[in-house]
TrEMBL record:
Belongs to the cutinase family. Disulfide bonds join C26-C106, C163-C170. It catalyses: cutin + H2O = cutin monomers. InterPro entries: AB_hydrolase_fold, Cutinase/axe, Cutinase_monf. Residues 1-15 form the signal peptide. The active site is at S117 (nucleophile), D167, H182 (proton donor/acceptor). GO terms for molecular function: cutinase activity. This is cutinase. It comes from the Eukaryota. It is found in: Secreted. GO terms for biological process: carbohydrate catabolic process. Its EC number is 3.1.1.74.
Length: 207
C-alpha cells in the first residue's frame, strides 16, 4: 500500500465505531481477521465487522470470529505499510501466534482467514509460516484490497482475493487517489461474495 493512500484511508476510517470480535467458546469454524491500517478494535469495521456478522448470521453458534488486535502484536500502524513485507515482522508473528492460540484452544475447529489492506500483507506472510498441524486446519480465506495478492503454498481455489478496478492501493493500474474504492467492498457486494465463498468451504468441510 502506498503510504499516502494509507493516510487517506486512516482519515476515512478513524471516525468509524470500534469493531471487535473474540472467540470465547469453541465453535466448529473460526475466522481469524487482520484489519486494515488504523482501523479500531481487533477486526475493524470496514470489512471485518460485516464479514463476521454475515457468517455469524448464517452459522450461529457454529461460527466464531477472532481479530488480531494491538495487544496481539498487530497495531495496524500506517507506517508499517512501507516496510519490505508491507507490514511489520511483529504483526506477522502476532498473527501466527493467534492461529496457534485458536488451534490450541479449539483443536477440532476449522480455521479460515481474512486480511484487509495491510492485513492482506500479513496473511500472505503468515499463512505459509503456520505450523503444519495448524495449517492443516485452514480450509480457506479471503483478501480485500490487499497490498499482496498471492499466498505461497495456496492455490487460487483455496482463497479469494477482491481488488476493485479503481482501488489504487491493491491495483497498480488503477487511477491514483481513488481511495473511495478501497473502502467500498462492504457496499459493492464483495462481502456477500466472500460470505458465499467461505460458506462453501465450511459446507464442504461438513461442519
Amino acid at each position: 500500500m502506498k503510504v499516502v493512500g494509507a493516510i487517506v484511508l486512516a482519515t476515512a476510517v478513524s471516525a468509524l465505531p470500534q469493531g471487535s470480535w473474540n472467540v470465547d467458546t469453541c465453535p466448529d469454524n473460526i475466522l481469524i481477521v487482520a484489519r486494515g491500517s488504523i482501523e479500531q478494535g481487533n477486526t475493524g469495521t470496514v470489512i471485518g465487522g460485516p464479514l463476521c456478522a454475515g457468517l455469524k448470521k448464517k452459522y450461529g453458534a457454529k461460527f466464531g470470529c477472532q481479530g488480531v488486535g494491538t495487544a496481539d502484536g498487530y497495531p495496524a500502524a500506517v507506517g508499517d505499510n512501507s516496510k519490505p513485507k508491507g507490514t511489520c515482522d511483529e504483526c506477522i508473528s502476532g498473527t501466527i501466534k493467534m492461529f496457534g492460540k485458536m488451534h490450541t484452544k479449539c483443536p477440532k475447529a476449522n480455521l479460515m482467514f481474512m486480511g484487509y489492506s495491510q492485513g492482506g500483507a500479513i496473511m500472505s506472510s503468515a499463512i505459509p509460516q503456520l505450523a503444519p498441524d495448524v495449517k492443516s486446519k485452514v480450509i480457506g480465506g479471503v483478501l480485500f484490497g490487499s497490498t499482496r495478492q498471492t499466498i505461497s503454498g495456496l492455490t487460487k481455489d483455496q482463497f479469494a482475493s477482491y481488488c476493485g478496478s479503481e482501488d489504487s492501493i491493491c491495483n497498480r493500474v488503477a487511477k491514483s487517489g481513488s481511495t473511495g474504492s478501497h473502502l467500498a467492498y462492504s457496499k459493492n457486494g464483495d462481502v456477500e461474495k466472500a460470505v458465499a465463498f467461505l460458506s462453501s468451504k465450511i459446507d464442504a468441510a461438513g461442519k
